[in-house]
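Researcher: Please predict.
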Amino acid sequence: MIFFTFLLFWISIQFGQIIEDSIAYVIVLSIGIIHGSNDFTILKKQQKNTTSFLKSTAFYLFLIILCIVSYLIHPFISFLFFIILSSYHFGEQHLEDKISGSKILKSMLYTAYGMLIFSLIFIENLKDVEVVMRNLTGKIIPNSWIETMLVTSSLLLITLITYLFTRKIKPNIQIVREFFYILLLYLVFKTSSLIFGFAIYFVLWHSIPSILDQTKFLSGGYTFKTMLEYLKTAFVYWLISITGLVAAYYYLSESLFNSIIFIVLFAVTAPHVWVMNRMKQ
């Protein structure tokens, strides 16, 4: 993870935005999509019988419909909710094995960590964020909001981790190492485009660790054989997703395509977070 982060960091310094964004699209459309392609397989393993699986599947689909409807009603609020939900999801993946405590405490830590990551990405790409927001929602996130998010998430993260140590809960977290990780990611975000910076975190720091966790849950561990089985199971869902995206790219206008991409991303994020949360419990 560290090696490939440094490699992509070097690429962000040596090459222009076209190369960066091309790499970003490739890794997101491959590894990024695959990491969410086994949700139904995980749901099926969690359920004791067919009835329970069908109920869970129905709820999964309900969440997708709910997200689509919410975006159509109020795109800006939906985008903000997407950021908060994704922040929690990023934090859960990165910190779940490193901290203990109440659900509320862990949820606050997860969200604070994810918000810090997003704010670091946004703060270094303010103009690009404004363009994306205008295209998706017709509004922008004020720069002051992003600055406030950065300060608030940083202070909250420091406060909560300090609380864990003072309460002798003994989180399994190396402060110096985590600080180094965040500093490294900040340098990556500072030198890369918005899409490339997000892709580096999303794929290397989130999707790959998530795939390993999912493989361990489904097969009891991760070997070459179990990883291959994971990819085989995910392939059909991945192929359907890619086919749909390619068709949308060729047949829709750029602005409509961007909106469709976000709607799909938002719609599948909510149920995916629900499935991952249940898996980790």
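Model: The chain has a mean pLDDT of 89.
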